[in-house]
Every structure is written in structure tokens, then in C-alpha cells.
């Protein structure tokens, strides 16, 4: 059971943009890592774009499960995991991350923010904390 990506996005007009993201592509071949990360960023954006405000959904994309939560204020979170990772845990993580993000980052920064301008460093920690290690690894 693995988590590959944890993203915070803003669903504004006319499109969704990434505010902050963390990726774990360590299980992929070295030469595939950048394209896998690009795929995950693109997929996260696309799923948030297609989800209604105030909704939660889980979408299967290739061999991944993408869990999305779009709050009514436009703040969105996406977790990309393998098929075995528990859905309930993903939504608990998204709730926690979006609540914390909205307390630490001003709402005025969301529409114009980008990964380079937003100061929020907890995503990598959450991604590794919620990573489930297989027995014996």
C-alpha cells in the first residue's frame, strides 16, 4: 500500500491551479520519475477541475486511485495512491491537510499562488507519515 502524491490546489475561475504538492516516486525507475511526477500533477489538476465544489470522489486512473476533496471555498486536495490504500484514510488525510493549509496560508494568496510562492512545508511530512510500509521493508 503506497501513497504517491499529495496535492493542494485552488479551484477558481476559469481553471484549477496547483498551490503545493509532495511526491514519492522512489519506487519508480530513475528515468521514469519525472514523467510519473508530471502525470500525477496533471491528473490531480484534471480531477480537481472536474469535481464540483463541496464534493469528494475516488477515481481510478490506470493502476492508481485518485481521491479528491474540493471544499466549498475552492480549496482542493488530491491524494494519489495504489488500489490497496484505504479510501477512508485518504479522506482523513485530505481533511487534515486542507484544514491546516487554510489556517496557515491566507485565503487571499490562493487565487494567485503557486508552489514557488506558497509557504507550507508539511506535505512531505504527511506523505511519509501516512506511507504504509510492507512488513519486512
Overview of this protein structure:
The chain has 137 residues and is α+β, with helices and mostly antiparallel strands. The protein has one domain (3-130): Longin domain (Beta-Lactamase, 2-Layer Sandwich), CATH 3.30.450. 31% of the residues lie in helices and 28% in strands. It has 3 helices and 5 strands. It has helices at residues 33-50, 87-104, 123-129; strands at residues 3-11, 16-23, 55-61, 64-70, 75-82. A 5-stranded antiparallel β-sheet has the order 2-1-5-4-3, sandwiched between helices.
Topology:
Layout: E1 3-11, E2 16-23, H1 33-50, E3 55-61, E4 64-70, E5 75-82, H2 87-104, H3 123-129
Antiparallel strand pairs: 1-2, 1-5, 3-4, 4-5
List keywords for this structure.
single chain; 137 residues; alpha+beta; Beta-Lactamase; 5-stranded antiparallel sheet; 3 helices; 28% strand; globular; Longin_dom; membrane; YKT6A protein
Structural class: alpha+beta
Q: How are strands sequenced across the largest beta sheet? A: 2-1-5-4-3
Main sheet attributes: strand count, strand direction, barrel closure = 5 strands, antiparallel
Low-confidence stretches: none
Domain Longin: 8-127
GO biological process, one term: protein transport
Organism: Promerops cafer
Subcellular location: Endomembrane system
Summarize the structure.
It is a lipid-anchor. By secondary structure, this protein is an alpha+beta fold. Helices cover 31% and strands 28% of the residues.
